[in-house]
Specification:
Strand content of chain B: under 5%
Mean pLDDT of chain B: 89
Order of helices and strands of chain B: HHHHHHH
Number of helices of chain A: 5
Helix content of chain B: over 70%
Helix content of chain A: 55-70%
Oligomer: heterodimer
Largest sheet of chain A: 3 strands, antiparallel
Shape of chain A: elongated
Chain lengths: ~100, ~200
């Protein structure tokens, strides 16, 4: 059972459940706003904001801020790098599970 | 072993998140059943209007069709909204918008074509046309919601073609497509997706 290699391939940033969920949603959406993301993930404002900030700093996601009816609207999009990292992480997870069987 | 359990948990979370983000999952089984019952009532009233054969039969039928449409769409939306609330899912989001748009294109084309048929007095083709375009709308929209909607759409298309051939049974086939199929669909969805969650919340 050689699980050592896939374990190393796992992305430390994406081992967090909320961050992994954010990336999953963004991987299949053009862009998602803060409120929708919050309701899909069922997390608090502060929690989501903190995780989003980590992903943004890692350049896994992009943030666009605009105003709609004078209310600020924050939208999130996955970056190319983020997509690659997400795919690599999922592939590693898959290998880990297959290798463990 | 711990890592594998975590991995499996992560994979299932990824899958459910991707599904929530791309599919409108709040279609309630009650929506199907209520729409079906309204359609059956509508077909029955239409039959009465046709057999009485008054002067303004066509006007009455058009009015009836619009009333059935409004009632069916209204109750379906209300039930789905309730379901979204219960599941804690967003009701009106990007996915819901895509679903509506995907359905509105074939539906508008069908509606326009029904007006064309009306204008030319080709009334007998209207039930089949409605079934056909509604089926196409469902097939088109199924990408953004539960996969079973696709099969419902294909069945509606088959019924539509049949109603085109057997125009004397147009209303019956219409009642099967919009009435019976919706009710069957609703019951199937209830047993497939909702029964567990309902008993869980009740218990």
């Amino acid at each position: 059972m050689n699980v050592k290699q896939p374990l190393e391939q796992l992305d430390k940033l994406l081992e967090n459940r909320v961050r992994l969920a954010i990336m999953s949603v963004l991987a299949v959406s053009e862009s998602v706003d803060f409120t929708s993301l919050k309701s899909m993930l069922d997390v608090t404002d502060g929690n989501l904001a903190a995780h989003v900030a980590v992903l943004e700093r890692a350049k896994y996601i992009r943030v666009s801020k605009s105003f709609v009816d004078r209310k600020p609207l924050t939208r999130y999009m996955i970056t190319e790098g983020g997509r690659k990292a997400f795919k690599k992480h999922v592939d590693a997870l898959e290998r880990l599970i297959r290798g463990g069987k | 072993m711990q890592d594998i359990d975590n991995g499996l948990r992560d994979i299932s979370q990824i899958r459910s998140m991707m599904e929530t983000a791309t599919k409108f999952l709040s279609l309630s089984s009650l929506s199907g059943i209520s729409a079906g019952l309204i359609a059956l009532a509508g077909a029955w009233i239409a039959e009465e209007i046709l057999s009485s054969g008054g002067e303004s039969t066509v006007q009455w039928l058009v009015l009836l069709a619009l009333a059935v449409l409004l009632l069916a769409v209204g109750t379906s939306l209300a039930f789905s909204r309730r379901m979204a609330k219960k599941k804690g899912l967003p009701f009106w989001n990007a996915t819901a918008r895509k679903l509506v748009l995907a359905m509105m294109i074939p539906l508008s084309a069908g509606g326009a074509f029904c007006i064309v048929l009306l204008a030319h007095g080709l009334y007998v083709l209207i039930p089949g046309t409605m079934l056909l375009f509604y089926g196409l709308a469902l097939v088109n929209g199924s990408t953004f919601t539960l996969g079973e909607v696709r099969y419902l759409g294909l069945l509606e298309i088959l019924l539509g073609v049949a109603a085109g051939f057997w125009i004397e049974h147009g209303l019956t086939l219409w009642a099967i497509g919009f009435g019976l199929l919706h009710i069957v669909y609703g019951i199937v969805m209830y047993f497939k997706y909702e029964r567990e969650t309902t008993t869980r919340t009740a218990g």
